[in-house]
């Protein structure tokens, strides 16, 4: 018998030696399963899935935090009970640029007369519209050596009633008045916001300051009002000048209106339509939206990024958990005989549970490390989607790691508990 073993060479002796060891005996037989290469590939796939899932969870968490911040951004004015719409007429019906005098202003008066209307005004670009009209401004008495370095200012044309709708706070000076009109001798008057004052007049009161319209003509700052987010929820309030429609909107034929209403803003829509028709039966009314709807639509891109990343993160987590569960279930099935013998030899349930759990937690740990490394690289490329949130926000990263760890632990414990219920007699006979 011994001679036979010697004739078979060193490999046979090694196999016999391995089977004589307790660990080798436990893992021998049909339950030993597939080769190491196959098992290694499965484990690497699970680690990669966990890492990818963690990366997406971190990205979705950062995007969610940024989106929540946008929702909490103060628009700068009271948005409740405000209706927005656009009225348009044919400029051919009002020759000599009289659309404002003969259509817009009578229309505003007719709407203001409705019982539920508190105030109404027009602005060429309503708040939370993400584009604008801007130009450089040159203040009187300041250097003009480099035109490219002149400050940039957003321009808005408004009617006097606009500030009653937004209820912006008058900080100094006065608001736009009916006397700020197109008469040849009427001085050009503008109201600026606090953002412009903070940037261009630090510590100074700008009321009375002038800026160049041409080299020899000037406009005058007559008042300062609080900021509103005219360019949308993402950007900080921009430096703005509010001009009178009579001085900066002549020739216009389309007018965005804002109406402050007592109660539900949509309740006055029929009355507004009738009022406009009385002034001009050919006028068109479009884009009838509450201010809440305007703000909601301005969040379209952030909402899309959040839903996209959230969906990917959810799918990736399901795949990672399912993969981890599948691999460990496979491992338990392949080690049925070993686990049965251990149980028969008196190994406690906690020992069998820990044997499989450690295997799973090693995979989870490897995936978390991979995900953290990948997340640190990827989130730096996501700054345009985070809206003020740091790519390395500690709270978000911690929550993502905890969530992924808990999901991995659950996926590990289920097959681990199954390992403790292996019947020793059945396992030993499984040959």
Question: What does this molecule look like?
Answer:
With 431 residues, the chain is α+β, with helices and mostly antiparallel strands. The protein has two domains: 33-72 and 301-429, no CATH class; 82-297, no CATH class. The protein is 51% helix and 15% strand. The chain has 16 helices and eleven strands. Strands 3, 4, 5, 6, 7, 8 and 9 form a seven-stranded mixed beta sheet that branches. A hairpin with a 5-residue loop joins β7 and β8. α4 (36-72) packs antiparallel against α11 (300-334) and α5 packs antiparallel against α9. It is elongated, with a radius of gyration of 36 Å.
H/E order of the elements?
A: HHHHEHEEEHEEHEEEHEHEHHHHHHH
Helix content: 40-55%
How many domains make up the 3D coordinates? 2
What proportion of the residues form beta strands (DSSP E)?
A: 5-15%
What overall geometry do the principal axes of the alpha carbons give? elongated
Structural class category: alpha+beta
Overall pLDDT score: 85
Main sheet overview: 7 strands, mixed
The radius of gyration over CA amounts to 36 Å
Low-pLDDT runs of 5+ residues are 1-8, 11-21, 24-34
List the helices and strands and how they pair.
Blueprint (H helix, E strand, L loop, with lengths): L1 H6 L2 H11 L1 H6 L8 H37 L9 E7 L10 H14 L4 E6 L11 E3 L15 E7 L3 H5 L3 E4 L14 E6 H7 L9 E3 L5 E8 L14 E5 H4 L5 E8 L7 H11 L4 E7 H8 L1 H35 L1 H9 L4 H30 L4 H4 L7 H26 L4 H6 L2
Parallel strand pairs: 4-9, 6-8
Antiparallel strand pairs: 1-10, 1-11, 2-10, 3-4, 5-8, 6-9, 7-8
